[in-house]
Every structure is written in structure tokens, then in C-alpha cells.
Specification:
Elements (H helix, E strand, L loop, with lengths): L1 E6 L7 H15 L3 E6 L13 H5 L8 H10 L2 E7 L7 H8 L16 H4 L3 E8 L8 H14 L2 E9 L10 H14 L3
Parallel strand pairs: 1-2, 1-3, 3-4, 4-5
Helix pairs in contact: 1-7
The chain binds flavin mononucleotide.
Length: 189
Amino acid sequence: MKVLGVLGSPRVGGNSDILLEQALAGAKDKGAAVEKIILCKKNISGCLDCAQCNEAGVCAIQDDMLGIHEKILEADCIIHSSPVYFWSMTSQMKAYLDRWCAFFDAEWQLHKTYQSRMQGKKIALITVCADPKVSTADPIVHSFKTTCEFSGLQWLGAVQASAGLKGEIAKNEIAMKEAYDLGKKGASL
Ligand SMILES: Cc1cc2nc3c(=O)[nH]c(=O)nc-3n(C[C@H](O)[C@H](O)[C@H](O)COP(=O)(O)O)c2cc1C
């Protein structure tokens, strides 16, 4: 099993990074090979809707997302982690998600080149918001969950936590355990 962690926060070592590390620790303890991608350290442009991928199955933009597409294809499970920025995901995470466009054809079906490698892939999400109401992150959950349902991926679930200051989430034992368990679930057959 390969579990890929994708960090959407630019605050490396911050709350969503801590929870993602917990999830990856859970996956590793279950025997998975784990890898983490820090999106803010990558060069990822927004989707241009040029439709070139519809034919070729390959994105026309020559940036770091091409390598990340490969890592997505290789992974059995992808765990995303993003803080809430203005009731939404971070711009880094949104640019990454929009570039998933390359996996689809003109009819928004999984591109035939990728169908067998994408179908049933497990997708999970971690969110952190400063608001004590963790439902503040519901729009991000909706975005990832609906993307999964729409494209035949397997929605694994979300951990939604609240913390503001950098690193504060480490004191939240429940969120830490939930993230660890999410990683274990992601690494299970
Ligand atoms: C630009 C920006 C926008 C934010 N918008 C929200 C928001 O709409 N709701 C909220 O509850 N917290 C908001 N926050 C707070 C972060 O979600 C919170 O501090 C979180 O713990 C950051 O996670 P990180 O340490 O993983 O970066 C915002 C923070 C920033 C920097």
C-alpha cells in the first residue's frame, strides 16, 4: 500500500501539517509506504481549461503538477490536509485540485488512460480552522467528497479540527487520534 499525504498549508509544521503527519504515522504503522508533498514548495499553476488533456490525457502546463499526477496515479490512498482560508481551501490546494482535470476526458469521465489506476482510489481529508465550529470547513469537505463521488473514487472520510495558533492542534488529543486512525484506515485493504 502506498499512502500519499498532500499538505495544502503554507505554514509547514503548522496544524494541518501536524495532523497530516499523524495520519501518515497511522498509515506507516499499518505497513504502508508513505510520502508527503508540501504544495507550497511546488510550482503549480491554475488549470487553464485549454482542454488539451481531454485528448492526450496529459496536462499542457509544464510545471511540478506533472510529477504529482504520477504520484497520485501510483498511490492507493491520498490524504489531503488543508486549513480553512476564508471558508474555503487554501489557494495552493485549489490549484492542485483543479489540475486533476487532466484525469478526465471531454465528457468528465475518468480518462480511459487512467480509469483502472484511478477507480476506487481512496481519498481522505483533514481540515483545520480557527473557528471553534469545525463545520466551518464543510465547503472543503463537500468539494473533495463530491469530486470522489463524481469520479468513482472512494471517499474515506474527513477529520475536521479547530486550532488557531501554529502547533496548537498537538494538544487536541481527540483530533490527533482521529487523524492517526484515518491514516490507518487509508492503509487498510
Ligand atoms: C488567509 C487566512 C484566512 C483564514 N480564514 C479562516 C476562516 O475563514 N475561518 C477560520 O475558522 N479560520 C481561518 N483562518 C485561520 C486558519 O484556518 C487557522 O489558523 C489554522 O489553524 C491554520 O492552519 P495551519 O497551521 O495548518 O496553517 C485563516 C487564516 C489565514 C492565514
